Amino acid sequence: LSLIFLIGLISCSIGDRDEGYNACLNVNFHKHCNNEYEFKVDPPLSLKLFRWSCLADVKYNCMHEITQQRINQGLNIVQYYGKWPFWRVFGIQEIFSVIFSIGNGYAHYVHRSKLNRLPNNFYLINYLKGYNLVTINTWIWSTVFHCRDVRITERLDYFSALASVQFALHYCFLRVFQVKAFWQQLIAIILSLSFYANHIYNMNQHFDYGYNMKVNIAIGVITNLLWIGWSVYIKYFDQSSKSPKTAHPDPWGPVVVGVQLSLAMSLEILDFPPILGYVDAHSLWHGATILVIYRYYKFMIADAHWYAKSFDTTSDKLI
Quick count: other Cβ atoms within 10 Å of Cβ 239? Predict the structure, then answer.
C-alpha cells in the first residue's frame, strides 16, 4: 500500500504531502477498495465509463475533503500531485478544459472545406491539409486527457501537441524559404520526423516535463521569428509590395497570430485555483486559443491564394 501511495511522487505538491490527506487515503482505501483498482461497492456508471480506479476515486474524495477543511480554516487552496482540486462532472475531471478543447478541434475542422477549395497550384496545399488533420488529432487527445488524466492519455496529449507545434514549424520553414523541390522537401521531412521520433523515445525513457516544455517553447519561438522575418520582407522588400494590386493581403498576419498566442499563453503564468472548482487559468488558455485559430487560418488561406496567383508554382510535389 505504501508503494501505491508513492505514485506521482515526481509531481508531488503541498496537498499530497499533507498528513491529514495521507491519513484520509489510508483509512478510505481500506474502507472502500479491495485493491488499487477494484471497489468494494459497485461504483456509478460515470466512474466506470472514464475508468476511475478505486484508489483514484479515494484520492479525489480525500482531496476535496481536505480542501474544504482548509477553506473552513481560512487557508489557501493547494495543489495535489501538481493539479488543482477540480470538481468532476459525470466522471470528467476538468470539464471546461474538455469543452474548450472540443472548441479548438472544431475550429480546425470547420476550415477543412476552405482548404479543399484552395488552388491546386499552391505547392503547400497538401501540407496545409496535413496540418489541419494533425491539429484536429491533437485536440482530440487534449479532450481525452482532460476527461481523465492517466499515464497513457497524458503521453498522447503531450506527444500530439508536439506534433502540431513541430508541423507548424515545418510548414513555416517550407513557406518562408519557398522549399519546392522534391528532394529538398524529402530531406526536411526526414529531419523533422527523426527529431520527433528521438524526442518521443527520450521522453519514454524518462518523462521530463521541464525538458518537454522547453522543446515546445523553443520550436514556437523559432517559428515566430521566421514568420516575423517573412512579414518584414514581404511588407517592405518584396517586389509585390510596390503595387496595391500585387501586394500581399495580410503581410502581418503571422505576427498578429504570434502576439495573440503569447497573450493567451500568459494565462498559464497566472495559475490560480479553479473558480468554483471548475475554471482555472489552463482552461481559459484553451478557450482563448479558439479565436486565434480562426485568425491563423485567415492568414494561411489568404497567403495560399496570393502565392498561387502571384507566382509560377510549377514544381514537383512530395505530398
Answer: 8
- Which residue ranges make up each domain of the chain? 14-73, 95-316
Q: List, for residues 236-272, the tens digit of each pLDDT value.
A: 998 887 788 889 999 999 999 999 998 988 887 788 8
Grid cell 487560418 — which residue?
297
pLDDT digits (tens, 9 = 90+) for 137-148: 999 999 999 999
CATH number of 95-316: 1.20.1070
Show the cell assigned to 134. 494533425
Task: Work out the percent of the chain whose per-residue pLDDT is above 70.
Answer: 94
DSSP symbol at 11: G
Report helix, strand and coil shares of the chain as percent, to nearest 5: 70, 5, 30
**What letters, b where the CB count within 10 A reaches 16 and e where it falls short, cover 112-125?**
eeebeebeebbbbb
CA 182 to CA 73: how far, in whole Å?
Answer: 67
C-alpha 84, offset from chain centre: 18
